[in-house]
């Protein structure tokens, strides 16, 4: 399964679309099809522990792939 992860700091639809387009180009260039999209809109930094990414990572299995436009989007809180 190929999972794509989108993340923005506010509900900026343009930035979400830019990220989606970039991931779709990457997937196409690497002969991949995105099976699932995970999106997080982080408005309040105090709530980052509730991100959809954590739930998505918990459901991944061996052999699954995760695509994101930036590795900084993949950081999870340590507390």
Keywords:
79 residues, alpha/beta, three-stranded parallel sheet, 2 helices, globular
Topology:
Layout: E1 2-8, H1 13-29, E2 36-41, H2 52-59, E3 65-68
Parallel strand pairs: 1-2, 1-3
In helices, the fraction of residues equals 25-40%
Measured by DSSP, the beta-strand proportion falls in 15-25%
SSE sequence, one letter per element: EHEHE
**Between the first and last Cα atoms, what is the distance in angstroms?**
29 Å
For the secondary structure, the number of strands is: 3
Question: What is this entry, summarized?
Answer:
The protein has helices spanning 13-29, 52-59; strands at residues 2-8, 36-41, 65-68. The protein is of the alpha/beta class and 79 residues long. Strand 1, helix 1 and strand 2 form a beta-alpha-beta unit.
Report on this model:
32% of the residues lie in helices and 22% in strands. It has 79 residues and is α/β, with parallel strands linked by helices. The protein has a three-stranded parallel sheet, with helices on both faces. It is globular and about 35 Å long. The protein starts with a strand and ends in an 11-residue tail after the last strand.
């Amino acid at each position: 399964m190929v999972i794509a992860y989108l993340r923005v700091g506010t509900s900026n639809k343009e930035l979400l679309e830019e990220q989606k387009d970039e991931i779709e180009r990457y997937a196409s260039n690497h002969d991949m099809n995105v099976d699932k999209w995970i999106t997080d809109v982080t408005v309040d930094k105090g709530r980052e522990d509730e991100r959809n990414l954590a739930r998505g990572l918990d459901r991944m299995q061996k052999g699954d792939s995760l695509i994101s436009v930036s590795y900084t989007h993949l950081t999870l809180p340590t507390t």
